[in-house]
Amino acid sequence: MRLAIVGASGAVGHELLSVLEKSNLRYDELRLYASPRSAGTTLECRGKKILVEVMPEGKIDADVILASAGGSISKSQAPIWVEGGAIVIDNSSAFRYDENIPLIVPEINGDVLEQHNWSKGGIVANPNCTTAVAVMALYPIHQKYGIKRAIISTYQATSGAGAKGMSELLEQTKNALENKPVTNEVFAHSIVFNVIPHIDSFQDNGYTKEEMKVAWETRKIMRAPNIKVSCTAVRIPTLRTHSEAITLELEKPAQPNDVRTLLETAPGVEVRDNPAEKLYPMPLTASGKNNVEVGRIRSSQVFDGGIDLFVAGDQLLKGAALNAVQIAEYMQQKGLIK
Question: With 156 labelled, which of 129, 142, 165, 244 sits at a CA distance of 20 to 30 A?
Answer without folding.
Answer: 142
